[in-house]
């Protein structure tokens, strides 16, 4: 082959390499994070609370205003510093899906959560106004990412699910504990504790998965199903209607956390 053809081939290979995501998805999956920048994502920063009981903030930094680099890319990982609260969210919306990502905790922690477990969260079916929940996050269902509690379910801005649960509480805080052998309870909009603890030690990589087919929501931690709920709904104009489409968001909530290999694949809609 002539020398100029070899040179052209080398340039073409280099160009293709620049276009290839650093974190390529598995076969059948689509990467949501390219490992280089936050293309395809937006940021929302509210503020750094002065206490855990602080009411909804009256002001915020807002959309794509992140002077402290709460959300950034470090060594091909999506870093969430946790310093100020908010979320980084996909531009696109997703309906029937299987989402998978890896996360690990960093060393930084911030007031007012210095003495509490490291906390973040994966929000899905995120819709509506930024900051609708407590001034920080969108209306959504949350797969909790928190030391010791990864896989719990949280309702944000009043979304509801049906689940097989028992009662649980922590002081005056009332919530539920998932137990698949119990009868189904409907219209729950609170925290639901997952079943089993399959997290790895702080600093090691964990895999979180969420499966949502329009009827059932499943949380999986390191290959173990820890929670299953049904019939996601939201209040629209005074009526509870199916809530089965929205964005993905990753929370900033007082702790440094790193994400990688964020990928999604479509699912068929469940039959009702």
TrEMBL record:
Annotated source species: Massilia varians
Give the 3-keto-alpha-glucoside-1,2-lyase/3-keto-2-hydroxy-glucal hydratase domain ranges. 28-265
Protein keywords? Signal
Pfam family membership, one: 3keto-disac_hyd
Region forming the signal peptide = 1-24
The reply to whether Signal figures as a keyword in the UniProt entry is yes
Q: What is this protein called?
A: 3-keto-alpha-glucoside-1,2-lyase/3-keto-2-hydroxy-glucal hydratase domain-containing protein
């Amino acid at each position: 082959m002539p020398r100029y053809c070899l040179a052209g081939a080398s340039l073409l290979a280099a160009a293709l390499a620049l276009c290839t995501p650093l974190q390529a998805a598995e076969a059948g999956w689509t990467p949501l994070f390219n490992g280089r920048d936050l293309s395809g994502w937006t940021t929302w920063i509210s503020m750094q609370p002065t206490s855990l009981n602080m009411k909804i903030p009256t002001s915020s930094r807002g959309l794509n205003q992140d002077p402290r680099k709460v959300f950034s890319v470090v060594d091909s990982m999506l870093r969430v510093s946790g310093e100020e609260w908010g979320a980084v969210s996909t531009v696109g919306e997703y309906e029937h899906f299987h989402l998978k990502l890896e996360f690990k905790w960093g060393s930084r922690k911030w007031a007012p959560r210095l003495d509490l477990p490291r906390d973040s969260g994966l929000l899905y079916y995120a819709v509506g106004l930024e900051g609708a929940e407590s001034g920080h996050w969108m209306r959504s269902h949350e797969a909790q990412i928190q030391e010791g509690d990864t896989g719990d379910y949280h309702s944000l801005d009043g979304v509801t699910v049906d689940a097989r649960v028992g009662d649980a509480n922590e002081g005056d805080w009332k919530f539920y504990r998932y137990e698949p052998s119990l009868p189904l309870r409907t219209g729950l909009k609170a925290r639901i504790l997952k079943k089993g603890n399959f997290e790895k030690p702080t600093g090691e990589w964990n895999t979180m998965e969420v499966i949502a087919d329009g009827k059932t929501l499943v949380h999986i931690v390191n290959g173990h199903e820890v929670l299953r709920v049904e019939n996601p709904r939201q209040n629209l104009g005074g009526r509870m209607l199916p809530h089965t489409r929205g964005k993905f968001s990753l929370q900033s909530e007082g702790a440094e956390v790193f994400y990688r290999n964020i990928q999604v694949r479509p699912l068929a809609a469940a039959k009702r």
